[in-house]
Amino acid sequence: MPLAEAALRAIESLLFEWARAIDEDRLEALADLLVEDGEYKVASRYNLDRGLPLAVIHTRSRAQLRDRIVSLRVANIYEAHHYRHLVSGVQVIGEEGGTYEVRANYAVIRIMEHDGSSAIFSSGQYRDRVLFEGGTPRFRRRHVVFDSKAIDTLLVYPL
Amino acid sequence: MPLAEAALRAIESLLFEWARAIDEDRLEALADLLVEDGEYKVASRYNLDRGLPLAVIHTRSRAQLRDRIVSLRVANIYEAHHYRHLVSGVQVIGEEGGTYEVRANYAVIRIMEHDGSSAIFSSGQYRDRVLFEGGTPRFRRRHVVFDSKAIDTLLVYPL
Amino acid sequence: MPLAEAALRAIESLLFEWARAIDEDRLEALADLLVEDGEYKVASRYNLDRGLPLAVIHTRSRAQLRDRIVSLRVANIYEAHHYRHLVSGVQVIGEEGGTYEVRANYAVIRIMEHDGSSAIFSSGQYRDRVLFEGGTPRFRRRHVVFDSKAIDTLLVYPL
Predict the structure, then answer these.
(1) Helix (H, G, I), strand (E, B) or coil at A116
(2) What DSSP character marks residue A107?
(3) Secondary structure letter of residue B28 according to DSSP
(4) For a designed S-S bond to A47, which of A52, A100, B126, C26 qualifies (C-beta 3.0 to 4.6 A apart)?
(5) Whole-angstrom Cα distance, residue C60 to residue C56?
(6) B84, C147: Cβ pair inside 8 Å?
(7) What is the mean pLDDT of each run of 10 residues along chain B (159 residues)?
(8) Contact with chain A for residue C84, Cβ under 8 A
(9) More confident residue, C55 or A23
(10) What was the ipTM of the complex prediction?
(11) pLDDT of B113
């Protein structure tokens, strides 16, 4: 892999930053981790493996992701909870014209506020395309491919 | 981030070493990963978010942590079990006067000896301050912020 | 640790590649991650701690591991499922004559096809010996030491 260590670290850190922004309830910081017309999609492995188009979340720009976060903050009604991300196995598996193809696994533990109970809420794979803008890595595309067919109850926060 | 790759690796390895020492039942090795007057604290996110001072463990030096480990070895009565740590998303988020501010997520699986059953026992965030003493990184402060309000049964080992 | 960063990265990537090959159902790619006479063994911590020889899987070469994968593909009958690996805390803890002693923790989530249910199937430690052949790192020995005494139902895929 001719990829410089510093670039690899920066890509890894981008993935970790996304996870930490969600876990620390700084959802408004997510959009800046995408390029302007960056795509963010959450879909099941089951659907993807069969070419089925249905996605749970699908935004095609920073602005659309921001809208979704605003809506979540002001309009959604849900039980208070937060997430804890485990992200592992970050690998750069290809590069084309300055865009890096990246894979990683994740598991998200969901902790309910009212009783403190926690459980693995979702696991899956990140299939990302990352490019550098002025030295800063951003997602050109972030596809979250979750393992289960259906997500237990409403998916409130991004994964 | 102007932090040299070697320093980042060393910090990461310090966090992994802490986890492995616990999982391999080498608890006596933990104190040497702190600086002499290093602080180790385990408290809930719930309490921290509300400014509540209660902590499950709070030691303020290597010696205090050693005392706690000795007490655990000789005096505590508990069912035999061990931990398995998953640590992810290690990030250096700041630096001041040679002390690095570090964040990471963790999940701890607890395995009971008598029936081999296992479950996620705790998840949360490490909020660490790390400094280098003669080239060796050590914890100036290790705050374990766990996600649940209460820890199921007695917390026996450090997290 | 005098180990060059590039070598450490390559070792880490080897461990991640193993996990991803299983999770993406590319089991045939595993054998090439071993050296020709590389050993792959899956045994419980319980047995290992007591010097008991019983292993769930024990292959002593690439060819033996390939046989096992072929048998799994054509002969085994089992309910459809897949794995999701979380690998963390990769550490090189020693080196002798160009062979690196490596440790890492893992947890494997198993997702059943028929109902999409998922649970932690296995957790444990990888105890690996890695060497470089023409610049490519491969397992000389991969010991998977799982935490529970018994593995729930049949272990179908490698861990």
Answers:
(1) coil
(2) E
(3) G
(4) A52
(5) 13
(6) yes
(7) 79 98 96 98 88 88 96 80 96 95 97 86 96 96 89 71
(8) yes
(9) A23
(10) 0.92
(11) 84
CB contact, 8 Å: B84 with chain A? no
Q: Would you call A20 and B147 a contact, using CB atoms and an 8 Å cutoff? A: no
Q: Which residue stretches of A24-116 are H helix? A: 45-49, 62-74
Gap from A156 CA to chain B (nearest CA, Å) = 18
Q: Residue B9 to residues B13, B90, C93: CA-CA distances in angstroms?
A: 6, 10, 14
pLDDT digits (tens, 9 = 90+) for C89-136: 999 999 999 999 999 999 999 998 888 888 899 999 999 999 999 999
Q: Could you write out the DSSP letters of every residue in chain C?
A: ----HHHHHHHHHHHHHHHHHHHTT-GGGSGGGEEEEEEEEEEEHHHHHTT----SEEE-SHHHHHHHHHHHHHT-----EEEEEEEEEEEEEEEETTEEEEEEEEEEEEEETTT--EEEEEEEEEEEEEEEETTEEEEEEEEEEESSSS-SS---S--
Can you give the pLDDT at residue A154? 63
Give the chain A residue whose CA is nearest to the CA of B106: A86
CB distance A88–B90 less than 8 Å?
no
Q: If you search the block for the tokens 């047995």, which residue do you land on? A: C47
Assess whether pLDDT exceeds 50 at residue A1: no
- Backbone Cα Rg of chain B: 16
What is chain C's length?
Answer: 159
